[in-house]
């Protein structure tokens, strides 16, 4: 599933292309992929709620969610799910399968730009907000601080109140927004913290070390365009390059790049987890 670096990389690619353009039309191939402002996946949708006829003011992001903001106050939130991605096709050829939503943007002195929402497995979706308040209070409610900027004081209370495994807490979007399985494993290894260790057991220095590791890894992963394991692609079709920098994620049985101990695996909260038993002692 795309995590914050992947979504931020998409945002950075998309904003210069469609920012400032008008949304000319939206073609919905599968209505059940789009949730209107009442959360419904059936029935007619008011074109203004889709942003049709309004200018894109910004392509934004909150956690793992991409947000297209329009001048009329409405917004479209794209959740990529397991296999979702956004594509900017070249030319006007036939439309391949699984292109569930097609936006067409344009401006006075620009050629129309199409953006496809592609999602073969349909775990993602497009969510509509009528107003900025609707966006903040419903679709983006309850998210924790952004992972690239997280500081110990922002998460100390949440960590101190739970005996859940530290990795499980990192995956909780209410505590820190944007971290998934890949970057939780990577941050815990860099910080030298065992993934199953109770979060409340971490002291101040360990929280500082963990937050520093998260910020550093997020910065590097974003600059590399995220991690392409299978489905993630930037809108131009190019893959992210951070996979080659993974130190532990998906490398169970390989040698730890820090100490050469064999990396081990476990499951936490139903999620595969890779760690070094030497660098990350319980």
Describe it for me?
The mean pLDDT is 96. The protein has 282 residues and is α+β, with helices and mostly antiparallel strands. Helix 1 (4-18) packs across helix 6 (204-223). It is elongated, with a radius of gyration of 20 Å. The longest helix has 20 residues, at 204-223. The chain folds into two domains: 4-137, MutM-like, N-terminal (N-terminal domain of MutM-like DNA repair proteins, Alpha-Beta Barrel), CATH 3.20.190; 147-275, Helicase, Ruva Protein, domain 3 (Orthogonal Bundle), CATH 1.10.8.50. The protein has six helices and eleven strands. Strands 2-9-5-4-3 form a five-stranded mixed sheet. Strand 10 (264-268) and strand 11 form a beta hairpin.
CATH class of the largest domain, please? Alpha Beta
H/E series: HEEEEEEEEEHHHHHEE
Rg:
20 Å
Q: How many domains is the backbone divided into?
A: 2
Q: Can you identify the CATH superfamily of the largest domain?
A: MutM-like, N-terminal
CATH architecture annotation of the largest domain: Alpha-Beta Barrel
User: In percent, how much strand structure appears in the residues?
Assistant: 15-25%
Strand order of the largest sheet: 2-9-5-4-3
Shape: elongated
Largest sheet: 5 strands, mixed
Number of strands: 11
Task: Determine the mean pLDDT.
Answer: 96
Low-confidence segments, ≥5 residues, pLDDT <50?
none
Structural class: alpha+beta
- The share of residues in helices is 10-25%
Q: End-to-end span in angstroms?
A: 28 Å
């Amino acid at each position: 599933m795309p995590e914050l670096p992947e979504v931020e990389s998409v945002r950075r690619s998309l904003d210069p292309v469609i920012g400032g353009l008008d949304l000319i039309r939206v073609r919905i191939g599968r209505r059940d992929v789009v949730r209107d402002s009442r959360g419904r996946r059936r029935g007619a949708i008011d074109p203004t709620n889709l942003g049709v006829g309004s200018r894109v003011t910004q392509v934004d992001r909150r956690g793992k969610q991409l947000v297209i903001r329009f001048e009329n106050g409405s917004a479209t939130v794209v959740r990529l799910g397991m296999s979702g991605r956004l594509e900017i096709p070249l030319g006007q050829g036939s439309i391949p399968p699984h292109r569930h939503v097609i936006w067409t943007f344009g401006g006075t002195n620009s050629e129309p730009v199409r953006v496809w929402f592609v999602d073969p497995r349909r775990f993602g979706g497009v969510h509509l907000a009528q107003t900025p308040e609707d966006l903040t209070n419903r679709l983006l409610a309850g998210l924790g601080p952004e992972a690239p900027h997280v500081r110990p004081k922002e998460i100390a209370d949440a960590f101190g109140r739970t005996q859940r495994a530290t990795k499980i807490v990192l995956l909780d979007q209410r505590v820190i927004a944007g971290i998934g399985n890949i970057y939780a494993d990577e941050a815990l290894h860099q910080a030298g913290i065992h993934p199953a260790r109770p979060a409340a057991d971490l002291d101040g220095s360990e929280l500082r070390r963990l937050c520093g590791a998260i910020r550093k890894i997020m910065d590097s992963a974003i600059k590399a365009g995220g991690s392409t394991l299978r489905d993630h692609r930037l809108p131009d079709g190019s893959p992210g390059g951070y996979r080659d920098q993974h130190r532990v994620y998906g490398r169970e049985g390989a040698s730890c790049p820090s100490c050469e101990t064999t990396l081990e695996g476990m499951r936490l909260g139903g999620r595969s987890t890779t760690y070094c038993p030497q660098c990350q002692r319980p």
